[in-house]
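re: ur msg from earlier - yeah i can do the guanosine-5'-diphosphate complex, just paste it... oh wait u already did. ok heres what im feeding in:
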Amino acid sequence: MKPIIAIVGRPNVGKSTLFNRLVGRRKAMVDDMPGVTRDRNYAEVNRFDVPFILVDTGGFEPETNDRLLQQMREQSQLAMDEADLILFVMDGRSGLTPADREVVEMLRRVDKPVFHLVNKVDGDKLESGIGDFYALGVETLYPVSAEHNRGIGDLMTEVCEALPVDRSEAQDEDITRIAVVGRPNVGKSSLVNRLLGFERVVANPTPGTTRDAVDTLFTWHKKRFLLIDTAGIRRKGKTTEKIEKYSVMDSLRSIERADVVLIVINAEEGVTEQDSKIAGYAYEAGRGCIFVVNKWDTLEKDNATLGRFVDRIRTEFKFLPFVPIVFVSAKTGQRLGKIMEEVDNVMAQYAKRVTTSELNRVFSAATAAHHAPLFQGRRVKFYFATQVGTRPPSFVIFTNRPEGIHFSYERYLANQIREAFGFTGTPLHLMFKGRE
Ligand code: GDP
Ligand code: GDP
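and the outut:
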């Protein structure tokens, strides 16, 4: 389970610049995959000593000056409650402000590592730019330049040392871990109660690794399943703005620990932006996914209603055409059994292995039917493909030009693999390796 790092600070201090710097986001990716990476304010980061989830708390809502202080308080509270480590960013060019002081006071009360950054210190002598910030009385200040990548490496070395050690339980291969995620009020706790209600709970809830997360183990058709953070899901009754924001971080945590993610959508409201963000994260994290459209009982239906809803989901989640959709009602119990059938099915696909000979038959046919575009005027040749892992299914493909494979060709190959082998509900991970 990866720790969460939150970035907090006034507008314009450079939070999103720092976010992009730490994520190492490539511009091309953003253009290539519209709707997936664009505007994302959280990401999984694997390029430092310890992998973590990074959240830019400033990205949760538009920032206006009149509400500045209140927003800063909310942001900081959010980070204090939910993150494992906080990067508080100030602006070395505009100097220390009263809002900065207030947040520093708030952060003193938190029992988590807090790093105080002075950003936009672009010059050669980093320390000379931060004189007045010593008035804050914090032990260590980190002068950095997010834009010019100065002081970031040293900062991250210390950040990684301060992160909590992962004490996550050894993964039991026989258990399918299910995360139920979605906006407040979509019916998550009703669904969880139903799922656990008609299946026998075989173990008492066991305390999770952090906070008061409680997972529940149950059996279905003689197989074992674990519902992640059932207490957290049930606790969410209120729908204040604050809880709305908390639910994103809760969702990320649950997704991190899951094999299969139930992305719950409210039939009454249709697909919202937050649904897309959560689904995008589950996809990038490489988890099995199922769309659960709940409150299906509330719609006036004719024989086109279902088809229209499917179309909408397929349009909104273009990057997830392989994810099954189930339409249910936690209230009436309609089609709830279908959820567990799909979980079982997606888990089987998520953990599936295909033989090297079958894979290469499909792969040679695919590369012959549709050649990869030339790279720097030269032909891209493919030699051999092999499945190197599961959960999610991962493949290594040997080629003379690993750097010359365009994203769209990669997607073509993934689609061909799907067409031949299914892999319903699971992302595929393709890696290209060089060989002359
Ligand atoms: P946010 O509102 O806190 O997310 O701030 P942004 O990341 O959008 O940055 C606000 C402005 O500060 C942008 O114009 C950035 O280019 C600029 N900026 C960010 N980091 C640095 C830095 O290290 N040095 C300088 N000189 N400018 C920076
Ligand atoms: P959560 O915040 O996502 O956990 O949502 P809850 O399970 O607390 O449900 C929010 C509200 O929606 C409650 O009033 C539920 O009774 C109601 N609800 C949940 N599922 C359904 C459903 O399938 N149909 C209808 N009509 N209402 C539902």
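cool cool. The CA atoms of residues 227 and 379 lie 49 Å apart. ping me if u need the other ligands too
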